[in-house]
Amino acid sequence: MSLIFGLFLFLATIAVMEGFAYVMHRWVMHGRIGWLLHESHHRERLGRFELNDLYGVIFAVPSIVLLYGGLQAGWGEWATWVGAGIAAYGAIYFGFHDVIVHRRVEHRIVPRSPYFKRIVQAHRLHHAVESREGTVSFGFIYAPPVERLKAELGSSDGARIRRPRPSSLAKIAD
Ligand SMILES: [Zn+2]
Ligand SMILES: [Zn+2]
């Protein structure tokens, strides 16, 4: 397999993972069963971890299996590239979601570029709702325009809107 094709597979995997994360977040995590774990992420976190962190552990499994298959078990290079793509998505997700937005690690990063501001504000709007239903913006590296999300949030039924917790959310330069 050529290096170019491998890199293509790697980047395509990251894109597919964003779609997969959107579907999982919207219909599984905010579904009846998935909410059992995800609800912890829509409340104030008391300790260092929350039940929702188990999703990260679950989603790491296919990446570990594919990397093992590709590097050790002779499945072919495709498995290594796809496994690495899933791991890279996990790293991007953790950096954006847990570090930048939710500040689980101290930092001084202030989103300034229009793209960066948009994805951070979109995820803040996702957290404007504590209930399982009625929230907006389920993706992480892509988000629709913030104005559209605000309009959608205002018109949704079943949303228990609350004021965002400033302490847990990233500051945004206006
Ligand atoms: Zn959510
Ligand atoms: Zn979040």
Shape: globular
The description of the largest β-sheet is: none
* Number of helical segments with 4 or more residues: 6
Q: Enumerate the spans where pLDDT stays under 50 for 5 or more consecutive residues.
A: none
How many structural domains does the protein architecture include? 1
**What is the mean pLDDT?**
89
Helix and strand run: HHHHHH
The structure class reads: mainly alpha
Which ligands occur here? zinc ion
Q: Strand-residue fraction?
A: under 5%
How many runs of DSSP E, i.e. beta strands?
A: 0
What share of residues is helical? 55-70%
Q: CA-to-CA gap between the ends?
A: 46 Å
CA-atom Rg in angstroms: 17 Å
Condensed summary:
The protein has 174 residues and is an all-alpha fold. It has helices spanning 3-29, 35-38, 53-71, 77-101, 114-126, 146-155. The protein contains six helices and no strands.
Overview of the structural elements:
This protein is mainly alpha-helical. The chain has one domain. The chain is built from six helices and no strands. It has helices at residues 3-29, 35-38, 53-71, 77-101, 114-126, 146-155. Helix 1 (3-29) packs across helix 4 (77-101), helix 3 runs antiparallel to helix 4 and helix 5 packs parallel to helix 6 (146-155). The model has no long low-confidence stretch (mean pLDDT 89). The structure holds zinc ion (2 copies). One zinc ion binds next to loops.
